């Protein structure tokens, strides 16, 4: 009878331990990134600037006017825009002329579509009116689908 020799080789215990530790470290780092939010929200960063217009604003009558400069997004439907005044949301009023005095007990806003594209875009004018519009109040603009806000303090 002939004796058959088989070569039985495997991964050495030292190499197996190193591989298991490496896999564990990679998995732990992945879980940490997902939990800590470093992976991002998937929403693009908002790049909008509001410039206060002293010549068109009438703070004593609770009206402020801003010129909009938009990079990201380049234009947006006004229904996706949220304006807050001093932390309180303002009601959207669509495209309309700048009021001469605040005619509501709540804050409201609108915009002048200067380029006629039917959307809020760079160069358009936003106006905000209401009892919260006063010197020192913070006006913020946010757009759904984008992270971040554009803010201006009323002088």
Give the key terms.
10 strands, 155 residues, alpha+beta, 1 helix, eight-stranded mixed sheet, two-stranded antiparallel sheet, single chain, 2 domains
Strand content: 25-35%
Please give the domain count.
2
Distance between the termini: 103 Å
Let me know the largest β-sheet: 8 strands, mixed
Summarize the helix and strand pattern as letters.
HEEEEEEEEEE
Number of strands: 10
**SS content category:** alpha+beta
Mean pLDDT: 87
Poorly predicted sequence stretches spanning 5 or more consecutive residues: none
Number of helices: 1
Helix content: 10-25%
Shape call: rod-shaped
Give structural notes.
The chain has one helix at 13-36, and strands at 47-52, 63-72, 75-76, 81-85, 88-95, 108-112, 120-121, 125-129, 138-143, 150-153. The chain has one helix and ten strands. The radius of gyration is 29 Å and the shape is rod-shaped. The chain folds into two domains: 11-40; 47-153, no CATH class. The strands form two sheets. Strands 1-2-8-6-5-4-9-10 form an eight-stranded mixed β-sheet, with no helix packed on it. It has a two-stranded antiparallel sheet with strand order 3-7. The model has no long low-confidence stretch (mean pLDDT 87). The protein is α+β, with helices and mostly antiparallel strands.
């Amino acid at each position: 009878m002939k004796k058959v020799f088989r070569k039985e080789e495997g991964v050495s215990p030292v190499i197996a331990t190193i591989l298991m530790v490496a896999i564990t470290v990679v998995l732990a780092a992945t879980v940490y990134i997902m939990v800590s939010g470093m992976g991002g929200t998937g929403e693009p960063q908002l790049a909008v600037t509001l410039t206060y217009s002293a010549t068109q604003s009438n703070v004593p009558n609770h009206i402020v006017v801003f010129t909009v400069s938009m990079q990201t997004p380049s234009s947006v439907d006004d229904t996706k825009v949220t304006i807050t005044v001093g932390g309180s949301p303002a009601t959207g009023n669509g495209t309309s002329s700048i009021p001469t005095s605040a005619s509501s007990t709540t804050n409201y806003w609108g915009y002048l579509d200067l380029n006629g594209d039917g959307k809020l875009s760079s160069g358009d004018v936003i106006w905000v009116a209401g009892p919260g519009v006063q010197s020192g109040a913070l006006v913020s603009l946010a757009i759904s689908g984008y992270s971040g806000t554009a803010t201006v303090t009323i002088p």
